[in-house]
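[job 4471] stage=fold_predict status=RUNNING
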Amino acid sequence: MGWGGALTLVNGSPFDWSVSSTSSYQMPAWKWPTVTAGKASRVYVEFGTIGNTRDDAAEAYYDITGTSNKFTILARKPSDYKLTISLNGMSTQQSPQGSQVDLGFRHDAAVNWILSTDEAGKWWSNSGTYTDWMQQSMGSLANRTLKHICMPGSHDAGMGPVFRPGTIGSHFANTQTQYLDFYAQLMAGSRFFDLRPVISGGQWVSGHYSAVGDIWLGGNGQSIADIVRQVNDFTSRYQELVIINLSHTLDTDNDYKALTQSQWNSLFDALKGLNNRYTVSNPSSTDFSSSKLSDFITDRASVFTIAQLPNGINLGDYANQGFYTSANFPFYDSYSNTNNRATMKNDQLAKLAANRNIVADPALRKDKFHILSWTMTQQPEDVLNFDRAIMNMAAEAFDDLVSEAWNAFTPLSFPNVLYVDALGVRDKSVVFPYDRPRSVGVNGDVAALAIAVNNGFAGRNGIVTGR
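[job 4471] inference complete, writing structure tokens
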């Protein structure tokens, strides 16, 4: 037996990728398929474990059919197992020709090579760093409406590395949803944030609470003041669109009651510290998901804040100060409420197929902004099992987002938000001795995948592009 893992090849282009030749030495598994345009293939790779393993090596040479572009997959073990893409025959937005893109290697899991091109074929994008990915993509995205753009999203975004137990029975494994803080999530490409403000100890903080019968369980994360500072830090450097959705608000100091109007006003006052708020006078019921990206970030950053208001609460004059209701940004959001990966996957892809159909015929068209909730939810048997931590279940589901979800997307049916826990992380971070999450690497594959959706699927739909 060798040392095996996988490489998922995501083809976000209109061209097939074909193998011209391969070679290998001491590699028990090294067979490469043609990757059809718009599809992903997960390929099993196995390094040898007999003899001098530092000699393990292999190459697979890919041609991008119909173009002069080429790339090579390299396997090496100089000190550890590693897969590398050599851009010996092409360049991309992130990587000049001749670049060596290190993908790493994950035993019994996958690394990803995500490569796409915009609808005009003018620029290619690959797995890499995407700090200002919206600005990088403005050539193709500027004139698209928000409901025709895909972006990474952070579930319960304020529950990052800052964790404070709020009730008996809460701990980081059953309450912490994000490995990164708000700023680091922004840097990793997230643009849609699920923020759940609560009052705790008289202060505005992020919260993650749920009721089990008459008992509330949960804890607190970053303070709202800290999140405001981090968003401002990001938007002072990068002219990107940041969407913040406020929901699940509670007064944990007073029996977990719903917020009063005056408390909502206090929250809006705290959030008025956000710079670059997108403001419109008298927005009424305008649907801003139908606005173009260029309306928001042609020459500036924009922060668009949506408040999921309960009955009896209104925005008042805050509607003119950069705060909007759900009527201003309608979206489809239905999570699966399961701890089973296959059940979640089948449920989310079925909901996408049933609720998204971007066609010309108004009678058949389904075009609401769609959140793909690629999240698993702890069930009672998981709550005290640290190995079934929320972030560990997110890592369990990560590889299927890149391969199986991708293969279910089409130009007529693709999501607007790739909505995940532990954004930017693909490995388990909650491991024995379970005293705190361990250090793991940050990865930009969700952002690369969103760009590939914009290029490989949305960019092939004439209704989206106007072509």
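[job 4471] summary: The chain has eleven helices and 23 strands.
[job 4471] exit 0
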